UniProtKB/TrEMBL annotation:
GO biological-process terms attached to the record: defense response to bacterium; killing of cells of another organism
Native organism: Klebsiella pasteurii
Keyword terms, alphabetized: Antimicrobial, Bacteriolytic enzyme
Name of the protein in its database record: Pesticin C-terminal domain-containing protein
InterPro entries: Lysozyme_dom_sf, Pesticin_C
Amino acid sequence: MGFYQLPEENGKRSRYQVHIECLSMDDMETFITNPGRAGEDAPVYLTWQTNAPLFDKGERGMVAGSRKTKAPGILTLARVPGADAEGNTLTGNRDAAYYQIRPEGGWLAATSVQKVSQYALDELGFVTLNKAPESFDLIDGIKQPNNVVKGILEQLYKVAQDETRTTHALNKYNYQRLLALIDDNHDGYYSEQEYLQAVHNVSCRDRLYRVIAKHASEWYYGKDDPLWKTYLDTLTTDAPLWKTYLEAFLDKMTWMKAVSEKGVVLGPEPWHMHPMVFLSSMMDENETALNWLKVPKGQLTFDAEGNDINTSPWFSRKIHWPGGVSGVTIGRGYDLGQQTTANADLTQIGIAKLLKSWLVGSQGLSGLDAQSRFNSASEDIRNSTITRKQQYDMFMISYQRLEDDVKRICQKLNTIRVYQPNPQATPEQAWNDIPEKIKEVLIDLRYRGDYTPHARSLMQRYAYSGDLNSFGNVLSTRSNWLNVPEERFNQRISFYEN
């Protein structure tokens, strides 16, 4: 770990960086295929492909519909609810006949999914890229980057081709255009920033973080090596002070060649990967892992409904009463005042018997009754802490119920008739036309009780039409949400604008 500082034209850029070095005798390209089949007896992930038939859970079991998965995906197996052949929800999913794929809004049959070991990195989207550049100056604004940059753009282009969100539909054409420019080898002045923005496109970062690239290390090659010298020579007249600084910097940075010459053969071209994504994919997840603080959908609501700081009054893994008309709450918004099946929910999640009994006794209480119930809790109950996984499971149950309620409202014929631009739209079409980001905001509004008829009169038409700008304007106008706490108001705007 060290302090890194880089001068710029109008100042400097500084940050602390952590370097993680992994030494292995394994061949990387073979390693990611899991040749030893490690972990196959206890798979950690569940994957599916595009166009897998989706099922809906009806009163009489699973019902085959016309919908299919829009894109391939990966979920942590332990987080995926399962159901038996009759559609009954299971407490575990080991022998499930169906799996609930929340990002797709439906269920997949066991025959449509694959259970994958955490060591089968290639099946989890990791790819190796061996395209060593001729210079460290990868994007110079003159010569087209037919190097590791092209390899990365090709990977991101594959992701963009699978994109289903209409708001991101142009991504694939941009990648296609940039790759065509590289292939045509039309050297000349071009925008370096355009390539940088394409590489660091937020909507494709999951694939970017899974690219394992082999290229020369700046810690191996010195200022006199061709990979640096070609670039440094151009600075002799253009930026002599910058050249002097870089040469001094490189003299202090290079060390790998000296170590290799002493018998520890590190090699000039190591593999480079995102350390946290690479390592976390192979980690076992226990009930207290930090990964349980990330949810497949509803992150806006999850983050807004508490924190994980045990000294904070908003620590969510103990019982609390948020005030107002709320009920006793535990986890991220599991309000006992709004529950009717608390005993079944808490049993499924595995809440300890004493705490479960007390929570079930709080079911249906709200406002002052809930406050009185909370104040009467014993120290043992107040200090009982659920695990992060239990909190995750609890949130997914309550979030799914509120999502179903928002879906019910959006599919009501009267709501469609008043606000849908196409009043002849079917309920399914009306719901599917709403962009995912808008759906997440609507569910957060419903979570806090803000998805009122008045709110729908302001924004529902923009939700149906997918008008992101107009919806955002309504969301960010403070006078529309005077009853919403300032912090929640700002959290919604921040999420929507990100």
